[in-house]
Design goal:
The structure is a homodimer.
Chain A lengths: L2 E10 L17 H13 L6 E2 L8 E12 L4 H11 L4 E9 L11 E9 L13 E2 L6 H11 L1 E4 L14 E12 L2 E8 L6 H13 L7 H8 L14 E7 L17
Parallel strand pairs in A: 3-10, 5-6
Antiparallel strand pairs in A: 1-3, 1-4, 2-3, 5-9, 5-10, 7-8, 8-9
Helix pairs in contact in A: 3-4
Chain lengths: ~260, ~260
């Protein structure tokens, strides 16, 4: 049997899970579900490496993970096997044999998160589990201005829940896009990496700016002080999606028509 | 207090309901939920008239209903009151005061149903409750040909579960559109009216045609014989949406951006 390093492109509804990362006994995580099935498939227990953790309740449209397997199955067979045994809220969109040394987290060049807000009290019934129903109008121009200060290379310590100050908290946010369609507002954030809870705290800070609870300039102080207390609240997990993880060269050729159109 | 005839544009996730039409004691229907709240609002129990029934498990993106109320509330206040007390899987998209004689069913000119099929075994995790995951490829050309025979004014008795042969079973299907995007196939059906279970049986018959289990021509025999047994199976409720109900003149000016975009 040949040893293969297989990368998986994953989609999941995080609603009923305790996030990506495996936990001891009471395991109810995406990583845990995948490893259990892969163990059944190969007979050996191996770790699957995710591009990063997603919090409890956070969704993924394009999470990437990789695992080394001794199997005669080809890419498509691995994908089908997993989809057959995975619950209906986790799906493998694509599987690819990648170079031996490929690591989904260490090789990730860029990540994109999307945060979905509905300015109505009630969101589309079909989207209700995937959007934060705010129920208030937002000043998108003020949010845009604050977003402008956040883009770039900064110390984002103030925008993270991580207490561990040993590791560097400097990250580069390449783009923050705000799109309004009717009552829905979408915040798309792209960067070379995101600290623990960073995407949700950025979203929460932008929301407070849009509500006029803080000035656009105030985010500059947070970047300078690195004070978590000075930043905004942590927006609810249900509105956040890990949209995509970029590699060079790209490893997945996703059929965009697949699983992308929802009513 | 002025008596008003108020029309509601409704959206609902039918997954956990026994359909539109109120039922005796153990009531778990859309109509029942609405009437209970309107009774609390006005103090009087009145019937709300739907444009038509939707089966248990069938969804609606644009159901229309109307009710006569004695209230000082304006349209927006009625909408907000209902949305405040309705469960999160039923939403009023718009409320409008309409002419005294307006009746959502009797005045309906045209209805559009959409049936969502995924040709993969597993559909998008975010759409899983709103699509029939078929797991087989379909011959869309054969389906298109069968659809061509169905369009027009015919006796659709064979495409209905309704045993009552007293009422006319002649209907006019104005259009059946098939759209493929990746693994998803959407069947959009527009007609002046649909018999009991007709939309689901039309979808099921087209699916059997796409699977090669029956010839496109075979639907002609069903139209001629009126034999339910000759038609296809009744496609699962979860894939069906009552998309819209048309009136002349139109009564709703829906902001299409609202609640229409889902990831």
């Amino acid at each position: 049997m040949k040893r293969k390093n297989i990368a998986l492109l994953l989609e999941y509804d995080g609603s009923r899970y305790d996030g990506w990362q495996r936990q001891g006994n009471t395991d109810n995580t995406i990583q845990g579900k995948l490893e259990k099935i892969l163990e059944k498939m190969t007979g050996v227990c191996q770790e699957i490496h995710g591009s990063g953790r997603t919090d409890a309740g956070v969704h993924a449209a394009g999470q990437v993970a990789n695992i080394h397997l001794d199997t005669d199955m080809d890419e498509k067979e691995v994908q089908n096997y997993l989809n057959r045994y995975l619950p209906e809220d986790i799906r493998v969109l694509q599987a690819r044999v990648v170079p031996e040394r490929f690591h989904s987290r260490l090789w990730a060049k860029e990540k994109t998160y999307t945060y979905y807000i509905d300015m109505d009290e009630k969101s589309s019934v079909f989207r209700r589990k995937y959007v934060y129903a705010l129920g208030k109008r937002l000043d998108v121009n003020a949010m845009q201005q604050a977003a402008g200060y956040l883009v770039g290379t900064h110390d984002f310590a103030g925008f993270s829940s991580n207490k561990n100050k040993k590791k560097s908290t400097v990250r580069t946010i390449k783009d923050i896009r705000l799109q309004v369609s009717g009552s829905s507002l979408t915040v798309t954030m792209t960067g070379d990496g995101f600290l623990y809870n960073m995407a949700r705290i950025l979203a929460g800070t932008l929301i407070e700016t849009g509500l006029g609870k803080r000035t656009p300039d105030s985010v500059k102080d947070v970047l300078e002080s690195g004070d978590r207390q000075a930043a905004g609240f942590m927006a609810p997990a249900k509105g956040l999606f890990l949209e995509s993880v970029a590699y060079e060269p790209e490893i997945f050729l996703l059929n965009k028509g697949d699983g992308e159109t929802v009513r």
